[in-house]
User: Fold these one by one.
Assistant:
Number 1:
Amino acid sequence: MGATFVVTLREAFEAALLLGIVYAYLDRVGARAQYHWVTLGGALGLMASVAAGVAVSLVSGPLLDLGPDLVAGGVMFAAVGLLTWHGWWMRQHARAVQGQLQHRLDEARATQRLWIVGLIAFTGVFREGAETVLFLWGLASQTNVTGWSGVAGGVLGVVAAAGLGWGIFRGGRRLSLSRFFTGTSLLLLLVAAGLFSSGIGRLVGLGFLPDTEPLWDASWLLRDDSLVGSFLAGLAGYRARPSLLEVIGYLTYLLVAGWLLFGPRRPTPIAPPASSRADALS
Amino acid sequence: MTRWLAVAVLMGLSLVRAAGVAGAAEEIALTIENNRFSPEEIKVKAGVPFVLVVTNKDKSPEEFESKELRLEKVVPGGKTLKIQVRALKPGTYPFVGDYHAQTAKGRIVAE
């Protein structure tokens, strides 16, 4: 039971983290009315996970040999793109939403881009969702006592992950607005950098990218298959023996996205808006 | 949707072929039964890509996972699938069945 608990907790952790952040984000920009995008995205992600689990069990041949890898790789890079976009957008927003609540609401509505948080919820759930579904399904198919205690552990793992997501949501609401934006931007930056380098690793594993030497070996300190190591892998892309290409990918992403999210701001235009100038002239 | 998936798979396959991983690579059988791998040690020649033909004789799905090889692959119950493995440098590459990691363990030794 303990083993299955850890497996599902680990798999569902990233999804819970992302859901907690985007819900909190909508709350902080005063767009609670838009929660349904996240809920919808998460629900669709869950349905897609079940569908993918069923599909994997039905197909065979090259579709089974490579299909899941291509889907998984595609979802990883899509998630990197979405998280980067969200971070960049949050930064633009952060300037605008420091004002009063009504102003925040207007700003959030005006952009009309809130469905993107729904997409984040979708990819967050779908990424490890199919694996979790298959895992639980496999446990449930072993219809004996150990099977059911395993299922109980697995379900508890998902519930515990959801609890963590809830904690992040509650915690996110308590922070000051600027701390919230900075904190979540940093967190998402790490998650996305980890996803990016893991995506590169997968492409290397599949033979699409060349194999490079591991740059260092930290397995004496923290092994990939240890509990902490596997959580850090989900959170920030930890690898005990990262290859040169993965390290380059990780750092390049951090530099580019970090500059995008935390780099020098463009100076605000000094010229007053056209309407007020017209007022002054009249 | 299916058509796009097929196109994506074909593109992927041709890429793999272009990377020289596929072709006349040696096929090595790996069986999962009672949540264990057999054989648990696979010896391969270093520097030569190969194909793992994984058969899951159990009813429940298993996930072949090797952090070292950067490979993870769900093998549904009762199915056989192929995993292309790139040319490896000499060394030992452990793998596990992630869904039953306590029992399903093995390693590839490239020499």
Number 2:
Amino acid sequence: MQQPNGVAASAPLTLDGEGNARWLQRRQQFSAADASTRAALLASAARGVRADVVRTIRSAGLGHIGGDLSVTDILVTLFEAVLQIDPSQPAWPARDRFILSKGHCAAALYATLASCGFFSRERLAHFAAPLSPLNGHPNRQKIPGVETNTGPLGHGLPVAVGCASASKLAGANWRTFVVLGDGELQEGSNWEAAMCASHRKLDTLVAVIDRNRLQQGASTADTNELEPLADKWRAFGWDVQSIDGHDPAALLDAFTTPHPGRPRAVIANTVKGKGVSFMENGVEWHHKVPSAAQVEAALKELAA
Amino acid sequence: MSKEAPSAPGLHDCRVAFAEELIAMARLNPKVLAVCNDSVGSSNLVAFRQEFPDRLVNVGIAEQNMVGVAAGLANGGFLPFVCAASPFLTGRALEQIKADIVYSNFPVVLCGMSPGMAYGELGPTHHSIEDLAWMRAIGTLPVIVPADAAETRAAMRWVAASGRPAFLRIGRFKVPSVTPEGLGFELGKAVTLRDGRDVTLIAIGTLVSRALQAAELLAAQGVQARVINAASVKPLDVETVLRAARETGAIVTAEEAIVYGGLGGAVAELVSQHHPVPMHILGVPDLAPTGSTEFLLDHFGLTAEGIAQQSLDLLARFRKS
């Protein structure tokens, strides 16, 4: 991976003006495009993020590649087409909030943030490096675009409920999106938050579940069965959409159609390791690091 | 040297001062919110809810969600006061306090209501003798134990203006006024309430007035005790504590908390590394038996007589002249 010239791993992250300008152009292009062009634009952006994820994890020697690859289309759709944000003003009060509750997929988030210009893509080489702002889990004090420090699982949804409550209390209409893992839903704090969000009618809140059906050691079904999952969210009073988590049109629809009076849960059915054939659905790819040969093979597939 | 006599005679439930101060702050600052876990009554938030119905965020019996929600509200620009019984706030939501509040650095005021053994007969599940040790272990989170109503108000104002998170104990067990009139509160600053050269009594919260009474008992026996109110448990007032160690040569700490890792632990960490002197850590030794708060304080020797006796024993043990 290209090492940034003379930039120390510990240096603060700063706006990548050129990257941000390219992202703005893509957003404008996207608004004006028809459905099939939109799908092509998102697919292209996703390929770029997946390739950056593979390179980043190889370079750092650690990471959660399977989950990074399953969540990529969700992240790309949000950042390329949905979120009302401004990377040049990460603290803009009326910004949409995005929270990665499955914080171990930090590499995917960092690659996505870099593609918007929050910071330079070259800094991805500093993922998990000593004293780097790009820690193994996201840190809002070090990384523009990160709203809260996640990692322990079960934390992002309660914080998202707080953000959505703040929006409502302020009489604002900015939205809050939070992405969770499916194994993560085994943590009880999520269900406290789900009950609360529905009670408070937080219809600016969208929770996206990266339903790749695997967790660290085995499938979710063999560990602690989550099904019937859509029924559970409905029982808690949420609007529920079950979709293909790799279909940009379906993701866009789920993220943008209104759901008045209730929060929305998007169960995005995904494939862990998506995009790299020998990683797909492999439980070992939760946090295995690809070899140099595997990286080469992966990048070849992603470029195709 | 003793400071001017404190005001407001009688005994006070600090939650009353807390509730009044919160309302006063909310009138001036539209960003002030209260966040609670069904504890509207026990957190004294009834009047707050009456005046600001939209600004009380009650999430029900769900402490982990409560703290996460407070972080999100702070992210959205508000100044949340999280109000819940201290055992449940600090125990149930410990990881949320660590990750969502302290590590994420959101300016949230964590108010541990009715701490120590304030819930007396309800038993150890409802006591928070561990909260000081748990909170002290999390990064640089300030840990504040006001001694009376005036100090409760002053500490709340200080934390709200600081722009950083903090943990405050808000007492329920009625206490007399002990802090000097109009003194205010400053993080990292202890207040010497009585001077002395023979032994130092460092106390917090419910034990401060008892330490002052203990000093009177000791004076009658020719022992002059210095009494320090260390309301800022973390960070501790290094200068005042080390000066007391140097000038008096013996320290007794007194707290309504378990004897591991609280005020006594904080003072011992400092003194043992910089100016070791004989110490006695007075507090709660274990999960309590059944009894009212008053009974349990007596049962564990957390009284003026108990403090005085432990001081004399300490001096005798180390043959200090």
